Amino acid sequence: MEMIRNGFKASLREGRSTTGIFIGLVSPAAMEIAATAGFDWLLIDAEHAPNNPVTVLPQLQAAAAYGVPVMVRPVNHDPALIKQYLGIGAQTLLVPMVETAAEAAALVQAVRYPPHGIRGVGTALERSARWNAVEGYFKHADEEVCLLVQIESRTGLDNLDAILKVHGVDGVFIGPADLAASLGYLGQPMHPEVKAVIESVLPRIAAAGKAPGVFASDPATAKHYRSCGAAFVAVGADTSILRNAAVALAASFKESTVNSGAAY
Ligand code: 3PY
Ligand code: MG
Residue 217 — pLDDT band, cuts 50, 70, 90? Predict the structure, then answer.
């Protein structure tokens, strides 16, 4: 069979502006529902949501039937863990808390096979190569991987120019929640000073030839960041979508009980 192409990386190459959501429900069924919603991509979060390669695998399998590109966010920079996520077929990784060019360069190494990197070879056991069914897998494997690093700390901001020079980093994603915390505004990702930093950083990322991304669950802010140059915007999370809809539905019945005036 042919190499599995990375649809997300293709969208970056085409310069398309895309939106997606974070997936944290740890459920292949929830993944399937999200995959039918019309987003350009989905991101399985294994940083804060209780995921690991064993729980991510069936979610990748569930989404594959719908053709929507899926990214994975690992919990750390461990090359052994990254190898496992790549091995189960994740082609785009969003790596949190990257603070230096050396960390970014080490991640580039982790996602590439020798001689360009240190990714271990075990395709007979890996879905990425469809257990050796993919012909010419090694010829295309590195080029189909997309490495996105998250800048979400003051140190990361201070080192942004050096990180942007790292060859092999495809995109830089700003995490407003951690960035706000690092800048002294814990719990205030929409603080004007945080927003101002994000507004100034997005065009710098684009100017360096990397794809800028950011999280913005409020649609107006998401559109605003797109207008600042964001190429890919996470516009929510399945957990929040479920909670917000559940709260609104419950509240609508409380209101109707109060407003109806009916006494049963
Ligand atoms: C953050 O906001 O800190 C994230 O990592 C995701 O948006
Ligand atoms: Mg974060």
Answer: confident
152 lines ligand 1 (CB under 6 A): yes
Residue 56 lies in a domain: yes
Structural domain for 172, as ranges: 7-258
> What amino acid is encoded at 32 in this protein?
E
Q: Report CA-CA distances (Å) from 73 to 102, 131, 215.
A: 19, 23, 13
What is the CA(180)–ligand 2 centre distance, in A?
10
CATH at residue 85: 3.20.20.60
**Is the residue at 263 inside a domain?**
no
Kindly state whether residue 193 falls inside one of the protein's structural domains.
yes
The residues pairing with 22 across neighbouring beta strands, listed in sequence order, are: 43, 237
Please tell me the distance between residue 179's alpha carbon and the centre of ligand 1 in angstroms: 8
The number of beta carbons lying within 10 Å of the beta carbon of residue 247 is 10
Distance between CA atoms of residues 252 and 153, nearest Å: 40
Please indicate whether residue 175, judged by its CB atom, sits closer than 6 Å to ligand 1. yes
48 an active-site residue? yes
Please, which residues have CB less than 5 A from ligand 2, an ion?
A: 152, 175, 178
How many domains, the chain?
Answer: 1
- Give the Å distance between the CA of 175 and the centre of ligand 2: 5
Atom index in ligand 1 nearest the CA of residue 179 equals: 3
pLDDT digits (tens, 9 = 90+) for 33-61: 999 999 999 999 999 999 999 999 999 99
